[in-house]
Amino acid sequence: MSGNQTPDIRSLTREELDVFLSSVGEKRFRTKQVYDWLWKKGCRSFEEMTTLPLSLRNRLAEAFAFEVIQETGRQQSRDGTIKFGYRLHDGTIIESVLIPTGERTTACISSQAGCALGCIFCATATLGFYRNLTAAEMFDQVWKLSEASLEIHHISLSSIVLMGMGEPLFNYPQVKRAVDLITGEEGLRISPQRITLSTVGVPKVIRQLADDQLKTHLALSLHAATDTKRDRIIPFNKRYPLSDLIEALTYYHHKTGKRFTIEYLLLKEFNDTPEDARSFAEFCRNFPVKINLIEFNPVDGVEFQRSEMRRMKEFRDFLESRNLVVNIRQSRGKDIDAACGQLAGRTKDEGRET
Q1: Where are the domains of the chain?
Q2: Is 122 a catalytic residue?
């Protein structure tokens, strides 16, 4: 909703849009025309809907708002990663990241403004929680990063990860609708196999993902394989301990048959010891997984330090000795605070903070 309580037209389902158009005497084919403009053509105003009669465009403008996100700035890393700042209709700032890797580009988008989880290694946690993003606001991020990928790298967007600000499963209804719009025949028609949802682990919603048979990939941000250590860095774990998470993930695998990814942030002398590796390997025995070991990226006020590469390789080698598939993932965009755990709404443009 906008400040004057006029609904955003993109908050309507296709069925709701059809009901409105019928109520004002429009023929059924107008629904498809309007819907195509919104989700296939990504228009940003009613004026752009040039196949509609002016009278209908005016009627739509009287009844609905058009709450598109606006770019406020961008920063480019030495490695080519670009962080974008976006202002929402209510003035809230979010960030998204475009990551080039060889002949591929990945869009890292946000699902919430701020975050309520309070993970102590993450800059977004310092913001607190503002609100959930709408499906349209997530769609807009994908649309804009798709345009940037074509403009800058001359290639289509290769993949999408919901690893930006927020916990996607705390905003599941809007995330699911965004996925449907991005992947659907009436939307961008991007394969759901190119989309990954990243979560700290919300057991109830992980089960719902399985029941809904959502075709996206799932990535679990674990970061510690014992409750004692995970409680310290992810307070949410006190509410749903690892035993609950294991049950939900086992259900997810049995229901979908899919292997998921586990992300593990290595913190010097905290969770990178041989004992930690053994605990992690034991956790992973419950289901087939792929593992990404992640470098810690500096965050102001956070006491942890990055594990040495030697220790990271030893950790990887131990896991591989247990027949686990492991990759050490290199951080991208850390010099502009665009890497994992660094998004905090501070994108700069021409030397000015937004």
Answers
A1: 9-63, 70-353
A2: no
**CB contact set of 251 (below 8 Å; sequence gap of 6+):** 206, 207, 210
CATH number of 70-353: 3.20.20.70
pTM (two decimals): 0.92
What length does the chain have? 354
Q: What is the pLDDT of residues 40-89, one digit of tens each?
A: 999 999 999 999 999 999 999 999 999 999 999 999 989 899 999 999 99
Active site residue 95: yes
Q: Which residues contact 173 (CB under 8 A, 6 or more apart)?
A: none
Residue 278 CB partners (closer than 8 Å, separation 6+): 318
Give dist(CA 94, CA 145) in Å, integer.
14
Q: Which of 26, 95, 137, 263 is catalytic?
A: 95
Q: Dig out the tokens for 52 from the structure.
A: 């509609």
Shared fold status for 9-63 and 70-353: no
In 133-216 the beta strands, taken as DSSP E runs, fall at 159-162, 195-199
CB 108 within 8 A of CB 77: no
CA nearest to 60, candidates 71, 74, 48 = 48
How far is Cα 286 from Cα 143, in angstroms, rounded to an integer? Answer: 38
pLDDT on residue 344: 58
Residue 16 is classified by DSSP as H
Question: What's the distance, Cα to Cα, between the start and end of the chain in Å?
Answer: 24
Angle at the Cα of 160 from the Cα atoms of 154 and 166, rounded to 5 degrees: 135
Residue 197, amino acid: L
Tell me which of 119, 122, 284, 340 is the catalytic residue.
Answer: 340
CATH fold, domain 9-63, is DNA polymerase; domain 1 (1.10.150)
